[in-house]
Amino acid sequence: MSSYAVFWELLDKLEIYKDGNLDFQTVCDYMGADASRLDALLLEETGFSGQDILSRFRALDNYRNNT
Fold first, then answer.
1. 28-34, long-range: CB within 8 Å, 24+ apart, which pairs?
2. Domain-by-domain residue ranges, the chain?
3. pLDDT tens-digit series, residues 4-54
């Protein structure tokens, strides 16, 4: 599985965004992925950096839990 797919899997299935102590670099370290390469791929594919994606997932989760 590619690091791109693993990242989305961690977001979707394990909900890693719920741990506010994790940043994109830490997630990449955990995955054994090159953070700058994955970040560039995410930016190209989604228009958002890896850290932005984590932040947006957190914001959405916070919104859902407070409405």
1. 28/3, 31/3, 31/6, 31/7, 33/3, 33/6, 33/7, 34/3
2. 3-65
3. 999 999 999 999 999 999 999 999 999 999 999 999 999 999 999 999 999
